[in-house]
Amino acid sequence: ANHNVNVQTPWYLPQPATFNNQPDIAVIGGGIASLFTALSLLNRGAKVTLYCEDEQPALNASGNKQGAFYPQLSDDDLCNIRFYIHAFAYAHQRLHWAIKQRIEFEHEFCGVALCAYDDKSSLKLKKIFSYQWPTNLYRQLNQTELSQSVGLPLPCGGGFIPQGGWLAPRQFVQNTFAHLQQSGLIVKTQQKVTALLQTDKGWRLTNQQGEIFNHDIVVLANGHKLNQFPQTERLPLYPVRGQVSQIPTSENLVKLKSVLCYDGYLTPANQAKTSHCIGASHVRDSEDRRFSDQEQQENQLKIRRNLAMDWTKEIDTTGNQALIGIRSAVRDRIPMVGNVPNFVQQVEDYKNLFNLRRRKQSIKNAVNFDNLYLVAALGSRGLTSAPLLGETLASLIYNEPLPISEDIIHCLSANRSWIRKLLKGTPVK
Ligand SMILES: Cc1cc2nc3c(=O)[nH]c(=O)nc-3n(C[C@H](O)[C@H](O)[C@H](O)COP(=O)(O)OP(=O)(O)OC[C@H]3O[C@@H](n4cnc5c(N)ncnc54)[C@H](O)[C@@H]3O)c2cc1C
Fold first, then answer.
1. How close is the Cα of 378 to the center of ligand 1, in Å?
2. Is the ipTM of this complex over 0.85?
């Protein structure tokens, strides 16, 4: 029986996989989303093969030297905020698991400071404060307190997330994949999957070299390229290019004790106390991975504009050190996890959804592609969301109770944007 049956919302019904004994699962990816999905599947005894198009994992969005680790607490939708709070708490435990396994990765749970640098940001932070979260999650600090927390003078107060921090995503993802290989993960690099074909036994993958591989179950966790298959092309995902700059440390910058967020972010010095990361640009609908002079300068100008303290003059991006990655995003700002919905079938089955509900008529369960799953749209917070997304997906595949509340599961469903329209009686084409 499906543990997750809810007759109230059959259009969001999460559907487990079918398999005998040990499932043979292909995960397409190489970034942090695929990493945590593979981990949660291996923990349940699955046979897992990773297909990664690059020579190594973590060469795209998950390829940065330092990334900020903290929940998105500012959102008009409380469901999104609740998701990130759960995800953050869970990610903490996963990172501590990795530390215990002696997986090497630079990190510091040094806190994340959110600056109220203008009216708009100060309003946002006041709104976060109004929820009265426990102080170990969020604190409101005045100018003196916030300056003390970050170790450098600031022109404003703001918020502080004491359990946040930073980690080295590329090092973390690559070393954790190496660790998982010791527990049986098969990693296939330079294997771009170009086609997915459903067979009577599962799925047949074709790679760029024209080779064919069969698996019982497929998980798509391939970042901004996820909607490049016919089965996923109608998902409302879009790419957002980002350039993060690496800068040398300096007399004052080295004093930075926590991650500093304004209309951008600056990390404390790396472990060697030589450099920082400052970022990042957001260029919607761009998949261009070339270095941009303009974005490099913007990364430096933003902090000077927002904070205008003397020490910000020490920020020097002219060495032109940077990493460029492509995020995958959706309009409603939280990831997608679960079944890959069959767009054509759902739009047909639910074209009268509004009236069917009004007349209290029976409504079909959502039609999805059997044994095909996704983890998508991690946006700008993948380091925080990936562990819980991976665990949720593995729970679903294995027909276990899901580790997130049901209303949040609905918010994470890949068909949500079509369903919201259909529920209102708006056609989806
Ligand atoms: C500049 C920048 C700064 C960021 N800063 C932060 C931050 O401070 N904190 C934070 O939490 N997040 C940050 N993010 C966002 C975060 O990095 C992403 O949310 C996260 O890395 C997404 O992980 P992913 O696994 O979904 O995608 P990716 O890391 O992009 O991985 C996708 C993988 O899929 C593989 N692939 C794609 N197509 C195929 C195919 N057809 N066949 C086989 N393999 C394929 C690629 O090789 C790649 O390895 C930042 C992103 C950028 C770009």
1. 8
2. yes
Nearest atom within ligand 1 for CA of residue 384: 11
Cα of 169 vs centre of ligand 1, distance in Å, is 10
> Helix or strand or coil: residue 246?
strand
pLDDT at residue number 409: 97
CA distance 213 to 309: 57
- List for the chain the helix, strand, coil content (%; round to 5): 35, 25, 45
Atom of ligand 1 nearest to the CA of 376: 26
40-54 residues labelled b (16+ CB within 10 A) or e (exposed): bbbeeebbbbbbbbe
Q: Which of 49, 52, 259 to mutate to test the pocket of ligand 1 (most atoms within 8 A of CB)?
A: 52
pLDDT digits (tens, 9 = 90+) for 404-419: 999 999 999 999 999 9
Beta-strand ranges (E) seen in 130-202 are 139-141, 158-161, 165-167, 186-188, 193-198
10-61+171-237+331-423 folds as FAD/NAD(P)-binding domain (3.50.50)
Q: How many of the other CB atoms lie within 10 Å of CB of 233?
A: 11
Evaluate whether the domain defined by 112-162+238-329 bears CATH number 3.40.50.300: no
Q: For residue 31, how far is its CA from the centre of ligand 1 (angstroms)?
A: 5
- Tokens representing 113 are 């400071």
Of all helices (H) and strands (E), which one includes residue 147? helix 143-150
- The residues of the chain that CATH labels 3.30.9.10 are 112-162+238-329
Cα 425 to ligand 1 centre (Å): 35
Question: pLDDT tens for residues 65-103?
Answer: 999 999 999 999 999 999 999 999 999 999 999 999 999
Where does ligand 1 bind, in terms of residues with CB under 6 Å?
28-34, 51-54, 57, 59-62, 64, 67-68, 191-193, 221-223, 225, 242-244, 279-280, 325, 327, 378-384
